[in-house]
Amino acid sequence: MSDPYSPPHTITPAILSLVAEIAGEVGRIGALSGAAHVPKLRRENRIRSIHASLAIENNTLSLDQVTAVISGKRVLGQPREIQEVKNAFAAYETMTSWKSSAVKDLLAAHRLLMQGLVDDAGKFRSGSVGIAKGNRIVHLAPPASRVSPLMKDLLAWLKRTDAHPLIAGCVFHYELEFIHPFADGNGRIGRLWQTVILSHWNPLFAYLPVETVIRDRQAEYYKVLATCDKAGNSTAFIEFLLSALLTALRDAGNLQPGEQVDEQLSEQVARILKACAKAPRTKAELLESAGLANAYLNYKRHILPLVQSGLLEMTLPDKPNSRLQKYRLTDKARAFLR
């Protein structure tokens, strides 16, 4: 019996470093409700994701036009481009119900993305496809007869792999683009499915507009795909996409403190704030109230951001490392708890 299929890639020090940085950034943003969990900003981020992903595929509608289409308003534009927006919004809104390793869900996603645009929406291609640059073919995908078994192997790997979801999502994205299983829509389904994979690891990624970073680096995106085709593995693509994810996370985390918390507080943050509603509390007491261990990393992720956002203040601000240090609510925090 042959060994199960495993997509070729190498875990480099750069990849490990990026995974660690991304995990840290996720923790930092998660310490507050964060941009991705505020209803208004969550919707705005989803619209930005859709606009950028379609722009990569040469959709010319502006961000305002995409917003209007999603809001049900009439927009002057090409009917196909308007349909692309409607389809993408339906797909992104449905993705939480999909299982990332299920072929039927992948096909359902493609059907939503491409309905009314192609005749074979939701079906693997039946003919040969290649990617051309000018008059030159830069990528010739595997023959149609190989698509179904290749996708079966790839999805089986995704289901059993113990690779970190950040890495697995990048590998899957590259392999799907290499196989090119659909006659059209491979780029947008690849970006959507990576989001599906990552959102199962952390819901923050369901609303992270990483597509905007890919759009801004579009030339590099296609260049690194070609590099990996020549190398026969996805290592460079993993590094590229992890870098894009880190950039998107940092952009999301760089909102002004008031913007991060002005509509909704996470349950964990609310517990910390309520713990010192009547009297100042120590770091250990605050972390215990949130069910967290008294460790520096938890302090850095869950208490320090509240101080930086003006929700908590130190009782001894001139001696931040004092063993007598405690934390109390600010007037801003009390307003949130009313």
- The amount of helix comes to 55-70%
Number of strands: 4
Give unreliable regions as ranges: 32-38, 255-265
Integer average pLDDT = 86
- For the record, the count of structural domains works out to 2
Class of the largest domain in CATH?
Mainly Alpha
The main β sheet shows up as: 2 strands, antiparallel
CATH superfamily of the largest domain: Fido-like domain
Rounded radius of gyration (Å): 23 Å
Count of DSSP H/I helices: 16
Gross CATH architecture of the largest domain? Orthogonal Bundle
N-to-C SSE string, H for helix and E for strand: HHHHHEEHHHHHHHHHHEEH
Shape: globular
Which structural class fits the helix and strand makeup? mainly alpha
Major beta sheet, strand line-up: 1-2
Give the termini distance in whole angstroms.
65 Å
Say what oligomer this is. Answer: single chain
Q: What is the fold-level CATH name, i.e. the topology of the largest domain?
A: Fic-like fold
Fraction of residues in β-strands: under 5%
List keywords for this structure.
single chain, 338 residues, mainly alpha, Fic-like fold, Arc Repressor Mutant, subunit A, two-stranded antiparallel ribbon, 16 helices, 4 strands, 4% strand
Topology readout:
Layout: H1 13-30, H2 39-56, H3 63-70, H4 79-94, H5 103-114, E1 130-133, E2 136-140, H6 144-160, H7 165-179, H8 186-201, H9 210-216, H10 218-231, H11 235-253, H12 257-261, H13 267-275, H14 283-289, H15 296-308, E3 312-314, E4 327-329, H16 331-337
Antiparallel strand pairs: 1-2, 3-4
